[in-house]
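Input record (one chain):
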Amino acid sequence: MTKPKQMLSKRIIPCLDVKDGRTVKGVNFVDLRDAGDPVELAAQYAQQGADELVFLDITATHERRKTMIEMVKSVARQLNIPFTIGGGITELADAEALLNAGADKISINSAAVRNPKLIEELAKAFGVQFVVLAVDTKFVDGRNMVHLNGGRLIIELETENWIKQAEDLGAGEILLTSMDHDGTKAGFDCGLLHKINQMINIPIIASGGAGNMEHFTEVFQKANVDAALAASVFHYGEILIPDLKQELNRNQIPVRI
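The corresponding structure, as predicted from the sequence alone:
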């Protein structure tokens, strides 16, 4: 079945990894640096023309959940674009609290692997369109393997199989991060993204490896993903979203300008 999405505008999504209330960024999931206040950054990106935002509480615990809910409320007051929140969501009550605080979608990762029925429960409770499955993948011994706990734990689960299962359970979108490419600024993993995009019928957000504007053009042309996500190139002003969208437009890639 071919995805009926060729004419849809491609989305540009800044990602804010949040730790202790601050935005941070690392390379290959380690060596974290401070990148600013998440609420201020969110407002800037909305003004620049970002299509959506993703916030990931990368060290989420239940103690910090209240902090995240306050941040979500602050962000919701500032934004007129959709935003996704993820990190530490393990049950319906967690998702409900974040959606009630103003988030548009929730992202689940490790909890879904440990309890795949969570995907089904969330989709039934809130609708498929609210459920984003984040997958951290790394190439190990000739296979693409799922990693958990912020990429620290490899499990015996092949990425392709897990994503297909998640789609069947009711995931509405896949946020696929290549750990091999993450933070390297060497380009997205277009081969893997294209392969998975051919397998499923829900949107894919490409993550991991953006270093310049050509990388965004490449991932849309080669992998035909629905959205491309990046962090440090946006946080440190290396790529400005209006410039990126003009470049994509010049390359006949449909974007909202």
